[in-house]
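Anyone able to model this chain together with acetoacetyl-coenzyme A?
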Amino acid sequence: MEISKVGVVGCGLMGHGITQICSQAGWELVVREVDQDKLDKGLAKIDKQLGRAVEKGKLEQSDADAIRARITGTLDYADLADCDLVIEAMTEDLAGKLEMWAAVDGIVKDDAYFATNTSSLSVADQAAATKRADRFLGLHFFNPAQVMPLLEVVRSGETSDDASKLGFDLGETLGKTTVAAGDNRGFIVNRLLVPYMLDAIRANEQGVGSIKDIDTGMMAGASHPMGPLTLADFVGLDTLASIADVMAESYGEERFAQPETLRKMVSAGNYGRKSGKGFYDYSGEKPVPVDAGG
Ligand code: CAA
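re: yes, here you go
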């Protein structure tokens, strides 16, 4: 199937990036949010990233204008009706996703494909909320979607060869490196990355090193672009916590369980970079580790 119009549900951390790169590929985009404030914030992030690309000379102003003009924001699922592909990028809440898919399934044209950008929830469970499980797949992008090269293409037991091919073709059009991943919790990357971040939190709890030293250690000692605690803040501590819960329940292994520190930080509303505070305080010019008085 030829794709010409893509719907994205959610314009947050992942949704705005997915919307931007799909528009850059030349498709018409409709992005849906739950309220005007969230929609405005998401679209403003796209404007900012396009503006930065123009400033750096990576994009002509006319191209940035065209990319932005192909994106329409909406609060109404009805505007997704003629999309060829709908990508879900909501928060990691299965009940919310199931409710959305059931509503959207009755609105969007029958031959359209549906994809979830879930980090950890079951693709099959979400597909079952629709009457098109054969045209339902996982497309797992990484943050920031504009930069990270990987796209995990996930098949449930019901995903057709056509739908899977659509995922790999889409990845190629977007210039992504694609990998095939099974419909297991965390797919490939989070299965390995999430316990690593959780273990870094435990290492800090146990006095193995300060926040800064743990991060510096992994950057300078293993050539990671960010240390694990900076990365946890970057992913979002609320997101990390909910992925940990899903994986702990699915695998029944202690290494996936939320450390106490993470649980307390999320309860206090400290979600990392997006809330202004996590393992670092982001209120100043430079992030300050919270165990250093930030
Ligand atoms: N949106 C768009 N572009 C961005 C961006 C953003 N949020 N952040 C950075 N960039 C771009 C910059 O504009 C810059 O582009 P140019 O090279 O074209 O100038 C480029 O990325 C590099 O940025 P910076 O020079 O500002 O900073 P950096 O070199 O430190 O790179 C980074 C920033 C790309 C985020 C890098 O630190 C990195 O790769 N970090 C690791 C990120 C990571 O592991 N992501 C996966 C998280 S896990 C996940 O997403 C899965 C899940 O389900 C939880």
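The chain is about 45% helix and 15% strand.
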